[in-house]
Amino acid sequence: RKRIEESLANISQESEFAKYIQDDFFTMREDRYVIPVKLDGRGRVPGAIIDTSTSGQTLYIEPTSIRIQNQTLKELELSEKLEVFRILKDLSLQVAVESENIQNDYNEIISLDLMFAEARLAYKLDARPIPLAQRPTLRFVEAIHPLLKLNDEGKVVSNTIELKEGQNCLIISGPNAGGKTVILKTVGIIHMMVAAGLMPPVGLGSEIYLFEKMFIEMGDTQDMSAHLSTFSGHLLGLKPILQNAAEKDIVFLDEICVGTEPQTGAALAQSVL
Fold this sequence. Notes:
Layout: H1 2-13, E1 27-29, E2 32-38, E3 47-52, E4 58-63, H2 64-97, H3 99-125, E5 138-143, H4 146-151, E6 159-162, H5 180-195, E7 207-208, E8 214-217, H6 230-244, E9 250-253, H7 262-272
Parallel strand pairs: 8-9
Antiparallel strand pairs: 1-2, 2-4, 3-4, 5-6, 5-7
Helix pairs in contact: 1-2
């Protein structure tokens, strides 16, 4: 390749054909080295026309003096491709012999990567193991929503959330933007983290029961296309919960029986609970 470029440089700068050369450079056309020649240089610069410019004013000619070198270069490139193919084929055969070990190694690497990711997350959350209860119960001491812990650079307020002995319902009331929904999401996400084998951001003395199912009715389910108001959509969301929730399940209701007159909503909420 270097010899070809040196030959082309000589043709462009020093030979008797220099006056017909369009520019003082050489280029590639159809994987062959060529020089740009003015249209009036056709037939004066010995070689084969490989291509032309869009305007037709420039011919890209492969000089006769480098044709053999161009051909040799093509043959060398072909030999290189064949050698690469041979090497890859040989490596593939070696891999095939060790494919079972390689697959086992890959699976172990994935497992290790997962464990390190879990450990890094636990470190960032300042998390700890939490004992599993044998009966439906809930006790989170100084629990923090994981995303708030990860994203908030300031101090995040923790909460102790607990169901006493014999208590199967917890009602949270308070003003808007007081953190009621965050409490619900904290309990749900921590439960899902523990179920996935992750350590949650809770304090010492915490305990959790892995509930069998999780039911959620949260957000505005108004649907104009289905002729559902906020209240009717909310009732449709409550229906499967009332029909299916059992003793070993956990239910999250955000703003229960919302969207109707307060006294009616309160009576319905009492009946649901």
